[in-house]
Amino acid sequence: MSFAFGGYCFIYVHHHGTEEIAHWEMIGVMINQSMRNASLDELTEAGLIGYYTIHGYGIYPADPNGIPFTAAYIQCTGDPITDINEDLAAEQKARTTYEHIMNLTDNEEYLAPLRFLREREIVHYQRFGECLNILLEMFPDGNQNKIRRR
User: Fold this and answer.
1) How many angstroms separate the CA atoms of 58 and 32, rounded?
2) In this predicted structure, what is the pLDDT of residue 105?
3) Per-residue 3-state assignment (H helix, E strand, C coil) for the chain
4) Closest among 1, 3, 5 to 138, alpha carbons compared
5) I need a labelling partner for 89 at 20 to 30 A (CA). Which of 38, 80, 131, 139 fits?
6) Which of 17-21, 42-46, 75-79 is most confident?
7) Is 111 exposed, middle or buried (0-12, 13-18, 19+ CB in 10 A)?
8) Could you tell me if 17 and 92 are in contact, meaning their C-beta atoms sit under 8 angstroms apart?
9) Which tens digits make up the pLDDT trace of 96-132?
10) Which residues contact residue 84 at a Cβ distance below 8 angstroms, ignoring those fewer than 6 apart?
11) Using N-to-C axis directions, what is the helix angle for 80-102 and 108-138, rounded to 10°?
12) Cα torsion at 24, 106, 124, 65 (round to 10°)?
């Protein structure tokens, strides 16, 4: 998230981070619901016995390869236009990931929340696009990094 600008963009970005955490919470609940009654044989068959060995039925923020979430995934250069473009890309990557997950199931109990999350990513992308347009108007010469010395 980039916080280097004010007005509409600051208000949107400020609340956006909270919503993104809620998205992860929804995915975590879906994972927990999928695993909580699984037997050890079912976990082994699903390739999750290593995960279970370390985390039990708990939810641990990691990718499908077991690589844990890290703040290194979050980018910020301090350049508002660069950072907004990074945010736009992140929203598209999240939308694509939800679509890939949706391709893995026909279960409506999973598809309904995944469709909701996918739609939120589309809205986020649109709002960040609006912020980018505002920034481009604010800095028509492209010099958004000019330092004020006094």
Assistant:
1) 7
2) 94
3) CCCCCCHHHHHHHHHHHHHHHHHHHHHHHHHHHHHCCCCHHHHHHCCCHHHHHHHCCCCCCECCCCCECCHHHCCCCCCHHHHHHHHHHHHHHHHHHHHHHHCCCCCHHHHHHHHHHHHHHHHHHHHHHHHHHHHHHHCCCCCCCCCCCC
4) 5
5) 139
6) 42-46
7) middle
8) no
9) 999 999 999 999 999 999 999 999 999 999 999 999 9
10) 2, 9, 128, 131, 132, 135
11) 160
12) 40
Q: Is the pLDDT of residue 51 over 80?
A: yes
- Do 128 and 91 form a contact (C-beta atoms < 8 A)? yes
Q: Is 135 in contact with 81 (CB distance < 8 Å)? A: yes
- Neighbouring C-beta atoms of residue 11, cutoff 10 Å: 11
Length of the chain: 150
Distance, in Å, from the CA atom of 14 to the CA atom of 26, rounded to the nearest integer, reads 20
Mean pLDDT of 15-42: 85
Query: What span, in angstroms and rounded, lies between the C-alpha atoms of 80 and 29?
Result: 34
Q: How many CA atoms lie within 13 A of 75 on its CB side?
A: 13
What are the structure tokens assigned to 80, written together?
């508002």
